[in-house]
Amino acid sequence: MTSATELPGRPRAGALGGPATARATCVLAPNPSPMTLDGTNTWIVAEPDSDLAVVIDPGPLDETHLQTVVSTAEAAGKRIALTLLTHGHPDHSGGAARFAELTGTHVRALDPALRLGGEGLGVGDVVTTGGLELHVLSTPGHTADSLCFHLPADGAVFTGDTVLGRGTTVVAHPEGRLGDYLDSLRRLRALTVDEGVRTVLPGHGPVLDDARGAVDFYLVHRAKRLAQVETAVESGYRSASEVVAHVYADVDQSLWPAAELSVRAQLEYLGEHGLIQ
User: Fold this and answer.
1) Residue 37 CB burial class (10 angstroms; 0-12, 13-18, ≥19)
2) Measured between alpha carbons, how far is 95 from 138 in angstroms, rounded to an integer?
3) Enclosing domain of residue 204
4) Residue 265 — very low, low, confident or very high, per pLDDT cuts 50/70/90?
5) 264 is a domain residue
6) Which of the residues 61, 111, 199, 203 has an alpha carbon 20 to 30 A from that of 90?
7) Number of domains within the chain
8) Model-level pTM?
9) Is the dihedral of CA 219, 224, 227, 233 positive or negative?
């Protein structure tokens, strides 16, 4: 879920299609909506001197888009050798099976139901296809199976829906859990401090050049929303829908169903920590 809020860092055109870093190129899927912003960012990632590429999130089942991803890689002299998924939502993974047919690649994901080829992804795994080095990070919260991929050579991290290029994301209760999500944001912040990550390559929206600022924004935003939800409950708003109408009054009502998922996650979190009865 998004709002109109701009995140810290200079947005760059790479997330609207084209090169974003020395190793990452974006192909924008034609599925814009209030939930997907400009559309899903499909990422082609490769070492500059390698003829092999990895694709992160082939996107929805849209034949033209999938063919465009293949042709974009081929135009750069790359053969797609592996497909990775940040999580299982259809706007990221819906085209994965067809994309595997087009490219002859395996699909690696945390969720076994999404894998094609047997090999999955686990915390601490390092993908080294074509000399590339992508470190797998467990970042549940948006969904239980959410992953991020750290690209050390470019000081970048592919965040899927954990951090977007614009606005904020939904904690998709009941699968998504706020406690997990906050832990994941802290994990990403540590990456900006300890590993020098500067750039966010998101699943939707523009590239961000201030990764630490973006994660800090998310942490502050979540703390404010949680406090607002707690206050709303103390003021007598009990149901999730009542809390949404009160707390998310500044958000387009078309996004309220998604907001309700986040509110349910917030109410669960507050209850687990004894902050509400």
Assistant:
1) buried
2) 23
3) 13-213
4) very high
5) no
6) 199
7) 1
8) 0.93
9) negative
